[in-house]
Structures are given as structure tokens and as C-alpha cells.
Amino acid sequence: MIHSPPVERTHVLVVDDEPHVGRIIQMKLEQGPFRVTLAYDGIQALEALDREGDLKVVWLDLMMPHVSGLEVLARMRANDRTKEIPCVILTAAGHDTQRERAMTLGATDFMTKPFSPKRLLHRTAELAGVNVDPDSRANFEPDPRD
Fold it and tell me: Which of 13, 16, 25, 85 could form a disulfide bond with 21, CB atoms 3.0-4.6 angstroms apart?
């Protein structure tokens, strides 16, 4: 019997205080070439950033208990080990001031809730530099849900 080597899955951190949102993102990304670590608040996010040395992309909610997404982003960008990791902000519509602050702090991109899971998968692949099935390639034109 011939065994294929295990496929290396690209590591993504998803931070959202709404567990169902995190699970939706996790399920979609794990349909592709990703493995996901979930964090449900800013403290867990900082612990994961400190513990996980192979993160390629971070999806970060802004409005969270304990430590805000803006504070997590600021600490990411101040840390030599995490400052280059692409960080996409998940935000509810109408939080323009926080969005502007996140851009100043070094956010890579934004996606507004509710979001298109397919677009999220393809944006993650693009930022991580990995390929996903070209037959299901998302259209990167603005999605009305983004």
C-alpha cells in the first residue's frame, strides 16, 4: 500500500466573540487547505498569537470583551514575530471610526458582517499565497453582503 504524505494545511487564526460566526468561518476555511485556531476574545487571541508560530492569516473582530480587536491589532503590529501576518478585520456596518483606526494600526483588509463565506475563503487563500479549487473561484467584485 502506498501512503501519500499528509497535506500541509495553512494555519489561520479566527477571532470573534460570537461562537457561531467563528464556527462558520472555521467550517468554510477547513473545506479548503486551512486549519483554524479559534479565539473568542482578545485575551485568547493574544495567547494564540504568542503560542502559535506558524500563523499565516488572522481574521479579527473589532468589538470583543476583555481586549478589543484594535488592541490585539496594535500588539500584533508592535511584535516582530507577528507584525507581518496579514490581518483582516471583521466589522459590523457603521463602525467607520474603528475601521479608520484599524487601517492606521496596519489592518490588511476589511470584511463587513454579514460576509460571503466563499469570498472569505478566497481572500484567505490569496493572503496566505495558497491555491484553492479554481473551479469555485470567488468573484472578487464587491459582494452586496460585504
Answer: 16
Q: Which domain holds residue 59?
A: 10-128
How many domains are there within the chain? Answer: 1
Q: Which residue has the cell 507581518?
A: 84
Residue 39 lies in a domain: yes
pTM, to two decimals = 0.85
Give the whole-angstrom CA distance, residue 106 versus residue 70. Answer: 10
How many other C-beta atoms lie within 10 A of the C-beta of residue 106? Answer: 14
DSSP tag of 85: S
CA distance 33 to 130: 8
φ/ψ of 56, rounded to 5, equals -110, -25
Question: Taking all residues of the chain, what is their mean pLDDT, rounded to a whole number?
Answer: 86
**Residue 138 within any structural domain of the chain:** no
Q: Is residue 112 part of a domain?
A: yes
Query: Is 141 within the bounds of a domain?
Result: no
pLDDT (0 to 100) of residue 58: 98
CA dihedral over 69, 110, 49, 45, signed as positive or negative: positive
Instruction: State the CATH number of the domain containing residue 119.
Output: 3.40.50.2300
**Cell for 57?**
492569516
